[in-house]
Amino acid sequence: MKLEDKLRNLDRSNPIKVREKTPPVMQAETEESIGGVVSENRFGKFVLVEKRFGLGYRHGKIGLASCSEHKSDVLANLCFSKNSPPQKSFSSSTFDLKETVFVDCETTGLAGGVGTYAFLVGMGYFGDHEFLVRQYFMRDFDEEEAVLFAVSEELKKFKFLASYNGKCYDLPLLENRCVVNRIDFDPTSWPHLDLLFPSRRLWKKRIQDCSLSNVERQILNVEREIDIPSYLIPQIYFDYLRSGSVDQLIPVFHHNVYDILSLVGLSVLISQAIGDFRVAEIDDPMDLYSLGRLHFGSGDYRESIACFEHALSKAMPAEWQHVIYMNLAYSYKRLGDFRQAGQIWHRLLEEEFPFDFRAYEELAKYLEHREKDYPRAMEIVDRATECLNANSQPSSDFNCQRALESLQYRRRRLERKARNQQLKN
């Protein structure tokens, strides 16, 4: 959609009244307190804050120097994964962190919408011997246009973009505000790695809460000495606008820097984990299961088997062992190793695992189509029928009647095949 069309379709209502320009004295106090300098472009002035980190700096378990050890092909696959929000089609098969800008916004509201402003936009990227974080801050609403123009121009210097929920929140918000201010900005111009989605796929089973603050604490081992919850940030900014006091605003800048450093750490850790879980020292059975599922979904069945087998070497509840065994069997089946898959399904039937109709069905299929052992296949069908009759509703999402009909149909077919086999013999 062209910029003019977006402007016509956009609700220009603005619930926040822009007050008179910030007094010069208050502006100077803001710049000094947050360690920034006044920058200016053709749209006006704003405050620019820069923080520099040497490559020896460590953010939790990840050092910035390890950026060079990331798997660019892995990140490229995640970037264009069918499980992440859609974007333009790009031909690149790599995603180089050295050519990536890491973006995080602090806003006047968490719900988005036309009345939400990005009052602080942080962008981090690698230089020759350092990692630089640049923060674009509007001291009042009349500086928004200058901030947005500076941000849009800075982004043009990079080939790739990374964020955390940026595809659904940060970048659409910046786009909407640019439309309001008639600044040309297309967030789909970059291959965009949104780290929220691979983080959920890898760690949600274990940690449940995949907010960036929780992921960095439980996965990256980052403990912020001083921090504020994200939901308080909008109110802190409004308090600053009313009072002119910068004291409560300073932690917001630190919060933003930590978020950007966590994006770098997650990019490296995720690429290493998917590239080789042994090197990344992924050892928790739930994480190994999730990683195996990710490899299974991408068709890398050998790696999914390695993850599932390593997970089964760890102590875990029986119900999770059952789940992982089933996924392991399906991985062997997709790989074409039907005998190994059959042995696993047989084990699920013989040992004390919860009833799973799929294991009976898959083992019966294997015995019928691969082993041509029709009598044994009928035994498995009979056992499954008996279990279903004893427990008419194993789970809420399981249609017991349909399963019984399927077993009856399979039993009749097996009987016919068994008779034909006897006649041939």
Which structural traits does this protein have?
425 residues, alpha+beta, Nucleotidyltransferase, domain 5, Serine Threonine Protein Phosphatase 5, Tetratricopeptide repeat, two-stranded antiparallel ribbon, 52% helix, elongated
How would you explain this protein's 3D organization?
By secondary structure, the chain is α+β, with helices and mostly antiparallel strands. It has three domains: 273 residues, Nucleotidyltransferase, domain 5, CATH 3.30.420; 54 residues, Serine Threonine Protein Phosphatase 5, Tetratricopeptide repeat (Alpha Horseshoe), CATH 1.25.40; 71 residues, no CATH class. It has 16 helices and nine strands. The strands form two sheets. It has a seven-stranded mixed sheet with strand order 1-2-7-6-5-8-9, with helices on both faces. It has a two-stranded antiparallel ribbon with strand order 3-4. Helix 15 runs antiparallel to helix 16. It is elongated and about 95 Å long. About 3% of the residues have low confidence.
The biggest beta sheet is recorded as: 7 strands, mixed
N-C termini distance: 72 Å
CATH topology of the largest domain: Nucleotidyltransferase, domain 5
Question: In the CATH hierarchy, what is the class of the largest domain?
Answer: Alpha Beta
What would CATH call the architecture of the largest domain? Answer: 2-Layer Sandwich
What fraction of the residues are assigned to beta strands by DSSP? 5-15%
How many distinct beta strands? 9
Helix percent band = 40-55%
Low-pLDDT residue intervals, each spanning 5 or more residues: 10-20
Number of helices: 16
User: What's the arrangement of strands in the largest beta sheet?
Assistant: 1-2-7-6-5-8-9
Q: How many domains?
A: 3
